[in-house]
Amino acid sequence: MDKLLITRGVQRSPFWKFILWILPWAMLLAWGLYGAYLCLAEGLNQTNMDNRFAFGLWIYLDLTVIAFGAGAFFTGFLLYILKRHELKSVINSAVVLGLICYSGAIVVLMVDVGQPLRAWFTFWHPNVHSMLTEVTFCLTLYLTVLILEYAPIVMKNRQIRKVPSYLVFEFNLHKLMVVFAGVGAFLSFFHQGSLGGLYGVLRGRPFAFREDLGIWPSTFFLFVLSAMAAGPSFVLLTTWLVEKLSKKRLVKRETMSYLGKLSGVMLIIYILFKSVDTLIWINSTSPSSGFPAFEYYDRAAFGTWVLFAEVVLFGLLPALVLLRKKLRERMVWLIPSAVFVLAGVALNRFVLTIQTLALPTLVFDEFLSYMPSWQEVATFSMVIAYGVLLYSLSFRYLHLFPQERELTQPY
Amino acid sequence: MLPWVYEFRWDAGHIIFLGVFFSVLIIIASTLMRALMRAIGDFKNRRVDHVMWEVAFEDLPEPARACRHQLSGEVAHRTCPNEFDCRDCVSHELFLRANPVPPAGTGPQAPEEEQLFGLSFPLDRYYDRGHTWVKPAADGTLLVGLNDLGTRLLGSVENIQLPEIGSTMHVHGTAWQVSTRGADTRILSPVEGTVVDVGGPGKEWYLKVRPEGNGDALRHLLRGAEIKPWLTRELERLQFALSEDGVGMSLADGGVPVEDLPRSAPKADWDAVWGEMFLEA
Question: How far apart are the first and last CA of chain A?
Fold first, then answer.
């Protein structure tokens, strides 16, 4: 039965090996579900967050996975709208990754906000001036788009495609994918931006507060740009990991290199804007609110090394490597650079979520520290386990990499 | 006031924000409906076979989609843009003008039986890329059969599902299905028309079809001098399909495919080989 579900002409590990692979992840998922259940049933007292430290591990996870998941909209935009056909070989994988990231983020948000049965309130009582409302609306709609983009991949499963109505519907849905790609790009622009804007409007947190560019703070645009840099790197790194684990060539090396180039180009633009933004913040925004910027970096945990790591080590350095064709064509440079890009974006989200809240803003405030509870860690792990499981199942039973057969059997 | 949004007010914030939200929602819903309506239209217009083949063709590896004129050496590289249906292909017309291929059975070698690599490929008939042949009969019908390589690829078939007499065939729709070694394989129909009689594995032909349309009914099929280069490529594809991952072509040259290939190589992944050779994703 298992073999009959696998795409013809591709080789997958024996079923027992697959079960051995998913078993620990399934156990991790079960542990995470229990942690999430406790948080939903008992309340947020199960966490180590409080009124002062209202954002913790979960929001950090949300911001990071949503940035990593940007590969779905960016790849879709480049393929279906700008007609970069070389990305056809990774679009299915990018969609699965996007779906995992966004659905995982929404699940964790529901645990964080609590009262999931009242989730519809946000649509019924929208505060149209809130960045969070924009995020909620865009995330919901974009998740719908991702499900619609994932559906054709599922409908092309070897057994499902035998039902003519599914295949004919898939065919017609796929023909209209350009609309979903456009809508996805539009929604992603706003919610990636709004997540950044969320911090930029915190006037009471001068570490995060930024001046407006138009109607949005600069962090709005920095989040969009950094997500566009992280997305291709995440697709690239995942593809490479799956290749290593499955011991198969899945995409052509040129495509990997092209993904690296995309990341490099977006990253250098992001680093340029980020540097200008940081200089303006150091010299103008922060002092005008009564805080010399370098006071923020006096704390033991968050020295200037954080800024250096974010901008230079995980920013400028991988960008320069990825922009050089000779370097990015060699895996030994390409893969570590992709890891650095993702580390930089993850660090940026960490800094904005955790460092912003840890730093004192009033004279009687103290530097706060926060360590997530096991329930928070379990819920975090639940999303990771869910992602690995969904991707593993998709890789085994769906045709994620169209070039796989061709690369396995070189003509 | 919008009845579905509580506390809605006619101010710029509400109008812009909710306007954009509902516009996006309408675009998503209408696109989904459009796909659904088109799918219903395909069923009504009996385009299901065509759609299923188009999807399968799209999923084939690029080398398997090579144009017939690439195989015959007329062009260095060309992927077929028409799902192997050359009837309306402008480029095919131009290639034919430059290098005419006479109709099957009318060339200088006809009607001798051509032996290629130990396989029998008579020149009095036309060949489809899905390993079927078509032979025009005197009464205006078309006889459809499985070519020699296709027959050897399947070996002894356990079960066969032939279409009912009177059913309609579409080019590259399903002609018949075979089941063997726990796998189902569909054989592509090489022609369009109505089934007037059915044969089977033990007989000379599988189907007798009354063709539809004009005289272009066989234009997309290979014939004469086109057969040898195509068959050479097919044997290469077979060797790759039978080889281990990444090994490439490693079988000794000069052999002849045996009568029942699956029986002689029982450990091979025949499900994958049949998918590859019979153009099924």
Answer: 30
Same domain, B111 and B202: yes
Q: Which two tokens stand for residue A136?
A: 């909620």
For residue B277, tell me if it sits in a domain.
Answer: no
Residue B61 in contact with partner chain A when CB distance is under 8 A: yes
The nearest CA of chain B is from the CA of A162 a distance in Å of 9
And the tokens for B154? 């399947």
Residues B169 and B96 in one domain: yes
Q: A62 at the B interface (CB within 8 A)?
A: no
State yes or no: ipTM above 0.90: no
Q: Which residue among B28, B54, B61 places its CB closest to the CB of A144? A: B28
Contact A119, A132 (CB under 8 A): no
**Who among A3, A148, A408 is closest to B32 (CB)?**
A148
Query: Domains plus CATH for chain A?
Result: 2-283+292-356+374-405 (1.20.1630.10)
Nearest CB to A8; choose among B24, B31, B272: B272
DSSP state of A259: H
Task: Give the number of other Cβ atoms within 10 Å of residue A308's Cβ.
Answer: 13
Closest Cα in chain B to A183: B24
Task: Render each residue's pLDDT in chain A as its tens digit; 411 residues.
Answer: 788 899 988 889 999 999 999 999 999 999 999 999 999 999 889 999 988 888 899 999 999 999 999 989 999 999 999 999 999 999 999 999 999 999 999 999 999 988 888 888 888 888 888 878 888 888 899 999 999 999 999 999 999 998 999 999 999 999 999 999 999 999 999 889 989 998 999 888 889 999 888 888 999 999 999 999 999 999 999 999 999 999 999 999 999 999 999 999 999 999 999 999 999 999 999 998 888 888 888 876 788 899 999 999 999 999 999 999 999 999 999 999 999 999 999 999 999 999 888 888 887 888 888 899 999 999 999 999 999 999 999 999 999 999 888 887 654
In total, how many domains does chain B have?
2
**A9 and B272: CB-CB below 8 Å?**
yes
Query: Do B35 and B91 fall into the same domain?
Result: no
Contacts of B93 (CB under 8 A, 6+ apart): none
C-alpha torsion A171→A174→A176→A177, nearest 10 = 180
Work out the burial of residue B87: count CB atoms within 10 Å of its CB; fewer than 13 is exposed, 13-18 middle, 19 or more buried.
middle
Say yes or no for a CB contact (<8 Å) between A171 and B243.
Answer: no
Torsion A154-A157-A163-A167 (CA) sign:
positive
For A5, which residue in chain B has the nearest alpha carbon?
Answer: B183
